[in-house]
Amino acid sequence: MLGQFIINGIIKGILYSLLAIGFALVYNTTKVFHVAAAAIYVFAAFMFYFFAIVIGWPVAIAALVAIAFTMTLSWMSEIAVYRPLRQRKASNNVAMIASIGLMIVIINLLAIFFGNETKVIDNTIHRIFVLGNLIVTTPQMWQLVVGAFCIIVFLLFIGLSDWGVRLRALSVDTVLYETLGYDTSKARSLVFLMSGAFIGIASCLSAYDIGLDAHIGMNVLINAMVAMIIGGVGRFGTCVIGGITLGVLQSLTVYWFS
Known about the structure:
It contains ten helices and two strands. The chain has helices spanning 2-30, 37-54, 59-87, 92-114, 138-160, 162-172, 174-179, 184-210, 217-231, 238-257, and strands spanning 128-131, 134-137.
């Protein structure tokens, strides 16, 4: 029984890690407290629902299109909200307040168009995978495989690629980054696109398993922020350690204290 709770916690922690990476990419490189990530998470889930249920596309295609739309929305938040504030040399507190405003607008627009009630992507009985005494459902297996693959790709990207080095340099010293002749605006655009991708992946994987509503974003964002803090603010790869640690601790808390 304990092993089942641990595997459930690891899978939940992978989802936290994906969202923590999405949040940390923005916070570490731009120092913007990207509260609107909660709304972007909700947006991804509703786009997944729209393309999979309303239009009737296959789940995999619907998820990919939803992630693409989420990346676009994340990039637009940089272009329309954060970049103008940076050009006016607004403080990070002003950017955070603007981010909260953006979150409120997006969530309420989604609630107007789709309603506040809980929605389900797939309510069929899924195949289960039995590994000894452990049981893993099909949605959980997707979360485990896809989530782990995305995390590994990200760690290789941030640690070995040229752009990964640039993003780490940008997170350390923006002024020096610009002094060396690199384009900060282009780097920030990449950051928000990647952030949208990780947020969208986490949202679609979660929505496929437990459904969605218009108010799921803030709770998961808080968990992502805690995961980032556990791993260490200013770092990228350690978000994974923080996310899995938090997921396992939450799961074991349920096991110990009912």
